[in-house]
Amino acid sequence: MVGVETVAQATARSKIIAAARHVFVNPGYAAATIKQLADAADVSVQSVYFVFGNKPSVLSALLEVEVAGDEARISTLDRPWVAAALGAPHPLGQLRIQVHHGRLILERTADILLALRAAASADEDAALLWQTNLAQRRTVQQHLMIGLVEKDPSVDLETAINVALTLTSAETYTDLVVESGWTGEQYEEWVVGTLASTLGLDQAKKSRPRRM
């Protein structure tokens, strides 16, 4: 019986997370209700409360899944692409790997993050989740840029972190890719080129590493 309940709970969790992506973007996180989540997921209201407890927990789970790209409980810093980026021999090789995967994450999360930011001004739970996401993004960029500085000690760490956070924000991605019609590849090239130029990296070595 326990095993059946566990499978049922996992199934409900996946359905609720999938539904939350649409409900939290339209009508928006602040306006969304547990009943709307339940209806969109085709589960009972009681199931939403049983699996997640409250609306902020649903949003937190949604962000975790969309950032990762799957439901595996593996943190961003333990993902293979992070190791591949840090293992690249040249700073530009590292940037290409991390920017590529950062773009894939933004494809999955930019609309959710903008909805969360919009809700943060009026909702205390949303504000806390927004600040948590900002802190997590900084932690990831700091980890990656420490590796970059080890490859090129002339790079200023804080500058690298702050510029990367700005270029890879949901706002910047949405302005260029969604609103202005850039392709994902154009966006990647711009981010890599801007970072390399700002940080004073040698762009003569532009060999493209195999993406992991």
Give a description of the structure.
By secondary structure, the chain is mainly alpha-helical. The chain folds into two domains: 55 residues, Orthogonal Bundle (Arc Repressor Mutant, subunit A), CATH 1.10.10; 139 residues. Helix content is 75%, strand content 0%. The chain has ten helices and no strands. The radius of gyration is 19 Å and the shape is elongated. It starts with a helix and ends in a 13-residue tail after the last helix. 33% of the residues are buried. The C terminus is likely disordered.
Number of domains: 2
Largest sheet: none
Helical residue percent band: over 70%
Contiguous low-pLDDT stretches (5 residues minimum) are: 204-212
- Tell the overall outline: elongated
Count helical runs. Answer: 10
The span between the termini is 41 Å
Number of E-state strands: 0
What is the beta-strand fraction?
under 5%
Q: What is the N-to-C succession of helices and strands? A: HHHHHHHHHH
Mean pLDDT: 90
Oligomer: single chain
**Rg from Cα:** 19 Å
Secondary structure category:
mainly alpha
Protein topology:
Elements: H1 2-28, H2 34-41, H3 45-52, H4 55-68, H5 80-87, H6 91-120, H7 124-151, H8 157-167, H9 170-179, H10 184-199
What's the gist of this structure?
This protein has two domains: 1-55, Orthogonal Bundle (Arc Repressor Mutant, subunit A); 74-212. 75% of the residues lie in helices and 0% in strands.
